[in-house]
Amino acid sequence: ILQVRRTSLVQDSLHQLSLHHYELKKPLMVIFEGESGVDQGGVTKEFFQLLVRDLFNVGYGMFTYSEESRYFWFNSNSMETDLEFQLVGIILGLAIYNGVILDVHFPLVVYKKLLGIDPRLQDLRDLQPQVYRSLNSLLSMEEIESMDLYFEVSYDCFGEIKTHELIPNGSSVQVTGENKQRYVDLYVNYLLETSIATQFSAFKRGFLQVCGGPALRLFQYEELELLICGLRHYDFDALERGTTYKGGYTKDSNVIQWFWNLVKEMSVEEKKQLLFFTTGNDRAPVGGLGSLKLIIQRNGDDTERLPTAHTCFNILLLPEYSSQEKLADRLKLAISNSTGFGLQ
Fold it and tell me: Which residues form the active site (predicted)?
């Protein structure tokens, strides 16, 4: 049984869990100090929800949040103690043990690392898409010397730009066609391993306190994410409520009515494709789909052209198609080829 104060949730949880560390693999019951009521699951779920909200608050300093990828990542400059990162790991483990789904937005590489799988360049695509594209392009370049790159990484530390050498004397070793693969490997290793080694080690230690053992090896990393986060819920009703219309469209326009009718009939996979097509990301942001503020804008009269999107501004450009059938055909074609069509 954990007894915690709402006003001091993180510190109380750290204290209580350290006192009861030998009971981590028992069903969890939570009592909020000063509140009556028996915990039949609802209080525990609220405890997890509030604690995760506090721990992942960017202002708290443990994690950073990327607007580009919509993922949280370990703050390499964090001033928080190992115990607090260990607490996050314990919370993820307890969530699995108690059947509670968490609203945690980690990239898959976190679950790979928990299972002891070494990160690769491909894992950077989810977390830092722009860096991934740059490093990937580097590998296919012929005249790489002209870029004047060296075996070092620059990073921001509380407003001061610092440099980390990827190899001894790396600031004097230029990247060439012969050593570019090693440079990329070391760069990825620094971003996903070395720079956050202390924080992740504590986090993993906490997780294994609860979920360590041979059974963990039976899971794939995707299954581990599913255990912790559940199936991603996409509330497209919230997206519809938060959408605004421009260029002559209103919520009562035929095309708009047809569009939302089609969305309601889509499969989960098709909805994810639509989300990716319009926003450049197939995951809902932390605040849910209602916080996206989608804009649907009229893009001319009836035409054979496909819908397009300005993903940076969450703008979907829809011509005024003459029928719902035509809209369905054009929209389906556009979103199923979203890596090659209409993304700006």
Answer: 312
In a domain, 183, yes or no: yes
Structurally, the chain folds into a number of domains equal to 3
- Considering 37-41, 101-105, 240-244, 277-281, the range whose residues carry the highest mean pLDDT is 240-244
Cβ-contact 125, 118 below 8 angstroms: no
Query: Nearest-CA neighbor of 215 among 96, 88, 105?
Result: 96
Quick one: 109 and 139 in the same domain?
no
Confirm whether 112 is domain-assigned. Answer: yes
Q: Judging by DSSP bridges, how do beta strands 244-246 and 295-298 pair with one another?
A: parallel
Identify whether 343 is part of a domain.
no
Candidate list 157, 211, 229, 312, residue with the active-site label: 312
CA 283, 284, 289, 294 dihedral sign is negative
Q: Which residue has the higher pLDDT, 226 or 173?
A: 173
What's the Cα-to-Cα distance from 281 to each of 47, 66, 217, 245, 248, rounded to whole Å? 29, 12, 30, 21, 27
The CATH number given to whatever domain includes residue 186 is 3.30.2160.10
Across the range 334-340, mean pLDDT stands at 69
Dump pLDDT digits (tens) for 37-53: 555 556 787 788 889 98
Is 205 within 8 Å of 172 (Cβ atoms)? no
At 331, list the tokens.
């929209």
Distance CA 223, CA 226 (A): 5
Statement to judge: residues 64 and 210 lie in one domain: yes
Q: Domain range holding 131?
A: 121-192
